[in-house]
Amino acid sequence: MNPEVMIDGRKIGPDEPPYIICELSGNHNGSLDRALAMIDAAADTGCDAIKLQTYSPDSLTIASDKPDFRISGGLWDGRTLYDLYEEAHTPFDWHEALFTRARDRGVTIFSTPFDEYGADLLADLGAPAYKIASFEAVDLALIAHVARKGKPMIISTGLSGLGDIERAVATARDNGCEELVLLHCISSYPAPDDQSNLRTIPHLAQAFDTVVGLSDHTMGTAVSVAAVALGARVIEKHFTLARADGGPDSAFSLEPDEFRRLCDETRACFTALGRVSYQIAPAEKANRAFRRSLYAVADIAPGEELTATNTRSIRPGYGLAPHYRDQVLGRRARTAIARGTALNWELLA
Questions:
Q1: Sequence ranges of the domains in the chain
Q2: Which of 181, 220, 276, 281 has the fewest CB atoms within 10 Å, i.e. is most exposed?
Q3: Helices in the chain by DSSP H: which ranges?
Q4: Do domains 10-273 and 282-347 have the same CATH topology?
């Protein structure tokens, strides 16, 4: 089977260029104007889609100072979950303006809902696809609700074992999802390169017969490029106008020039994959002349024996191929052969 997904008229599949998703997340820093500017900057990078996150703090957690609700270690050390989500969330009443701006710029936009209300809001806005975040991949009721929208779904697999992924995929498919993408993901912020385990990507595609990709939280673009080489056809990466401006995700987000490079490099990687071929490429045909071949390197008189002294394998490649050397040595010249003459069988007795 050759799985394919269609999002907003763009085909995504093993034989298609990578689909690049620009994740705005919480880097709007609480400003709608900044969020709109991010939409414009993202559109200019050449990404295929812009993605939001649709939640309120209360849809994710409760306001509590108990140890269970406080983050220990990492980028957000010491913060409560509620405080972090209060800072990072994209207010529901911004969504229509953000969707309109992206559509005005000709870029697909969709989002990650974190509860049924968010999914229904996105449906009302005409979202062409839905993303399920890694941390929600175990929320089967949410997956079922989103699947019933009848749109393509993208599910991140960070923190999920094979059993978790199998349950999520089965739930999506059992509830009507016919177009599904699975994203390999390491849910660490940032994620270390040496724990990325990109060899999981082709296994994920084989195990679940889906389009696969990478939700990339590493620094830079190298891991995304490597993922495309291994079969990823969707790349999701966080975006910011400038890391120096701060924001909950800014430390591992790409700035506009970097994101443009991500788009260029991943697409170049896909193009370079090509096909299995041992034929001479069109670009190298002219250089066939510079391969080695057999030449006279001294004047050879009629009847004179061809030896390793008066013939050699040298560049260019207009003479007999070097593998004929043993058949040429010891033969005699049929006619005079001037130094610098490409050898051919007609010259030999």
A1: 10-273, 282-347
A2: 276
A3: 32-44, 57-60, 81-88, 95-104, 116-124, 140-147, 162-174, 200-208, 222-229, 256-273, 325-328
A4: no
DSSP assignments along 173-235, one per residue? HHTT--SEEEEEE---SSPPGGG--TTHHHHHHHHHTSEEEEEE-SSSSHHHHHHHHTT--EE
For 139-169, letters b (16+ CB in 10 Å) and e give bbebbbbbbebebbbbbbbbebeeeebeebb
Read off the pLDDT of residues 288-326 as tens digits, 9 standing for 90 and up: 999 999 999 999 999 999 999 999 999 999 999 999 999
Residues 159/135, Cβ–Cβ less than 8 Å: yes
Collapse the DSSP code of 337 into the 3-class scheme (helix H, G, I; strand E, B; otherwise coil) and give the result. strand
d(CA 141, CA 102): 30
CA distances to 28, 110, 129, 157, 175 from 178, in Å: 33, 18, 12, 18, 9
- The C-alpha angle with vertex 255 and arms to 129 and 188, in degrees rounded to 5, equals 65
Looking up tokens 């993605």 gives 51
Using alpha carbons, select from 175, 41, 9 the residue that is nearest to residue 108: 9
pTM for the full model? Answer: 0.92
10-273 classified as CATH 3.20.20.70: yes
Is 52 in contact with 90 (CB distance < 8 Å)? yes
CATH of domain 282-347: 3.90.1210.10
**From the CB of residue 230, how many other CB atoms can be counted at a distance below 10 Å?**
16
Q: Residue 16: beta bridge partners?
A: none
